[in-house]
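User: ok so my PI wants both of these folded by tonight, can you help

Assistant: No problem, let's get them done. Here's the first:
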Amino acid sequence: MPGLVRRPLVIWLLAALAVPVLLTAVLVPARAGTTEDDLRDRTLAALQARGIESRSVDFDGRDARVALPPGVDPGKVREIVAGVDGVRSVQIVNGLSGAATGGTPTASASTAPTESTPPITPSTVPVEQSDVPPFEVGRTNQAIRVQAPVRSQAVKDAIAAEVDQVRGEDREYDDRTTIDPANGIADASAVSALLRALAIGTGDASVRYDGDTITLSGQVPDQATKATVGRAAAKAVPGAVVADQLKLPTPPKAAVSEPCRTFPSRLAEFSRQYKINFLSGTSIVNDASKPSVIRAAALLKSCTTARVELAGHTDDLGSSATSLPLSERRAAAVKTQLVKLGVSADRLLANGYGESFPIASNSTGTGRIANRRVEIRPR
């Protein structure tokens, strides 16, 4: 009888232990599912709060798998999702194909990275080029043009609103956008950046993406605008080849006044008619040549951009050792006189050539007077 009493007691003890185990087996999956739904809801809310509409957010336990919208920085998405309380790791996948662009889990805000699982940075998770369909954004003096497939009417409207802000009163909107829910552009931000960059300036300019290469063509007003368009294009399609064919305006040639246009011929005529000669052995202009210096000053002042050389010469009566410095003093003396008469000194270059270049025979007095001279030459 004592044995019969103990046996039911053992059975009741085993039953008491089995009940919690069965309840755990039944309830734990339900709680896990509830946790995943809660994490998904809070993750979507966090992304939407930052202006990001993801097509898909899935959870396996506390591990997130997020479809990356085209044109959105993967690093930004990863940071937002990892900051959701309870998320353990984040995997970014291609928004169109579903292929993972980075399968290694990254540490969440509550999990420290280890040497075996380093955090993935935006530079190691590029957006696939195929995420962005071919498109074109362009401007003329008459219109702003957008030709692209877009994901929804909301994206189409956002692009139209951006065009209205940048086109100005003299341009119309040439709307060539079409709605393609499967393959269209999902975010207007990339197109908006290109519109803002291209709106600067006049004439024809465009950014065209053919699926492989972004081609920039047309004219922009300055180097800063050229750089802005290039950065916006590269950001619109990360990883694509950018062919920059944008041209800057050709600087206008400075208008040449009539006196400056005719200055070379008038200087040649002056040199034929008027001479600047010197007393023998000195740097003193002779009396007959003083009016020539005054005429030279008037000629030079008629074209203030002309620059000339004052070339000093001597006859052969002195030695070569004394002729060269004497010729230099003669050139300097004429320069001093011209400056006094109102010609800017930086337009005048004075050089001496000694007796090396006679224009007449040194065997006669008349020839020697002709050789003691300063010539005015264009430079």
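One down. Here's the second:
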Amino acid sequence: MNPRTRIRTSSALWASPFVVGLTLFYAVHVFGIDYPASRSVLPYAPEVVSFALEPFYGLTYAVVSALSAWEAGRLQQDGVWLLAPVRTRFRIAAGSLWPVLALGWSMPALAAGLALAQEGVAPTLGALQLPAMAALLAVAHCVIGFSAGHLMPRLIAAPLLAVGVFYLVAFAGAGQFSDTDANWSRHLSGAYSGFLAFGELATWSSLAAQALPTVGLAAGIALLWCGRRTAAARGVVVAAACLVTAVASGAAYRTASAWGVSAPVERADLSAHCAGEQPRVCVPRAADHTLDKARETVNDVVTELRSAGATVRMPHKVTDSLLEGRYQTSGDEWHLPLTQAERNGTLRYRILRAAGSLPCGNPRRADASALRLWQAHQVGEDKRYLKDLRGDVIDPGGDRDLARIQKAEDTRVAQVKARVDAVLQWPGVQQRIWYRTTLAHACPTRGGTQ
């Protein structure tokens, strides 16, 4: 049968208006509303694709499973399997299923492509990981759906698979089938759990865990279709099919059983732009316009704190955490969200918090708050620090306990502010003495040294 005739007679043709229409609706309307609130500060193709595909995994697998079952039922009804075996079963099945598979592949491809176009982001090799996983699993669901349609009437198999596969993937992807405090089903469902942030890529182990259970089941079913055999040979094939399915699922479970809510990720090899020495500041090349301002702000904040009497080290290197995926400050190397902070106007405050870190892990709270507020005043960021110190204001309503907690927190912040206001009235020499004495009291095991 030529391709045009195959498409014209395939169930994929009459299902395509609904499938493509739903894909376009989400990709154009829903994605455009939801994604802007979650996007990273810099455009990143794998992040866009991971967000765009999240609702399409279960839908894609449900569509290809149901349509494959329908095609299998049509072949059964037409008596194709009773005809002389001119072609192998695999060729007959492949000829019937390729329009269904093409429709299934078009769903994640269309969703990812439209999302990238809306964001104006060029696709990268890293952005192909999740669509490739979805394409492989679509093939596996075609095999499973075709086999179900061969065993059951298509009027039963097709709707049953459409609903069952969708909810199975959705519930497993939400961790509903995992044990208490475990998340393994999220990582075996075929729907990649979580979104990739800037600079992240899915690990091969996380992709394998998602694919292995379904691919293993499809491979086991495919073994059962390998021609006619003797009774003994059929027994061996059945055992081999069960073994393949069990080994694949077991390997996936063993891989993912210890993972948390999100699968492990790896860092992409991002291009960086660095400038200066002592400190050397590095940002993603896409954000190199922030480089000079970031380096100048680091110098200004450290110099002002030193002039006021704080013991602060100039960092050897400051790296934008977008490049390394962590927010931490240690010793002579800092990792800070430079690009994000520059965008939202908190660059100076972020650098202050890094420069003014205390030399112990658990300082006495009252002294630590006073020291940090005094530091913030020296660089003009005291209002922002007080806001952070106060935290989010919650309306207690009729909750007396919450109202009491809020009142106690207000009193604590007011005491810290009054203490520092009094210190700021002193001469500079006395303020330096107060700073060293308070630091020693806040971190008694470190003697107040940095």
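The CA atoms of residues 393 and 423 lie 27 Å apart. The longest strand covers residues 280-284. Good luck tonight!
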